[in-house]
Write a structure and sequence with these properties.
- By secondary structure, the protein is an all-alpha fold.
- It has a domain of about 130 residues: Tetracycline Repressor, domain 2, CATH 1.10.357.
- The chain is about 75% helix and about 0% strand.
- Helix 8 runs antiparallel to helix 9.
- The protein starts with 6 loop residues before the first helix and ends with a helix.
Length: about 190
């Protein structure tokens, strides 16, 4: 009888190991072998699920982004549109130690010049997914130009990730939430004009 493996759970384990290696050894230290060593497994264990280093990196990015997207998409359900947008922006800028680790990894991948085609394709697709969620949130508020307003909010959220990596001691959650609330207030004011 074949062994049943939860593919998503296994890829999640590999993603967590990838982030741990990157935190310890930098992005250049992430190899199939180093991730396998982190898990106490063979390289074959990794390549059964992810055949290349690029696939390992994309897997870790998907792991990070799925938690971000899940939080944002949760805001599409239930509450009043303005409050949904406010909560989504707050969740996009809040951080803790785990979030800081994820932001470091994401920025390290972005900083690689001449990125691998597979990695770049994934980054393009994830940017589109985040834009779609932000645009839906803004559109529900009745904004006359939801895509333009969503651009500003997404740019602010991405800037927050860079800021917490650069100077985390200056960018407290309170400060970032206050700025996010101001950005949302401006979008909501435009929606009522």
């Amino acid at each position: 009888m074949p062994i049943r493996v939860d593919l998503e759970a296994r890829r999640g384990e590999i993603a967590v190991a990838t982030l741990a290696v990157a935190a310890r050894d930098s992005l250049s230290g992430v190899t199939i072998r180093s991730v396998a060593n982190e898990l106490g497994a063979s390289t074959t264990f990794i390549t059964n699920y992810l055949q290349t280093r690029s696939a390992v990196l994309v897997n870790a990015l998907r792991h990070i982004e799925s938690s971000w997207l899940n939080e944002l998409e949760a805001e599409l359900v239930g509450s009043e549109p303005g409050e949904s947008l406010r909560q989504a922006m707050r969740s996009a800028v809040r951080w803790d130690d785990e979030e800081l680790l994820r932001a470091h990894f994401w920025i390290a991948v972005l900083a690689v010049p001449h990125r691998d085609e597979e990695v770049q394709r994934h980054l393009d697709e994830s940017n589109e997914a985040f834009m779609a969620v932000f645009t839906k949130l803004v559109d529900r508020c009745g904004h006359p130009e939801p895509a333009a307003a969503a651009d500003r909010l997404l740019l602010m959220a991405q800037g927050a990730l860079v800021s917490i990596v650069e100077t985390p001691h200056e960018w407290t959650n309170e400060r970032l939430v206050s700025i996010a609330d101001s950005a949302v207030a401006a979008v909501l004011a435009e929606a009522t004009e």
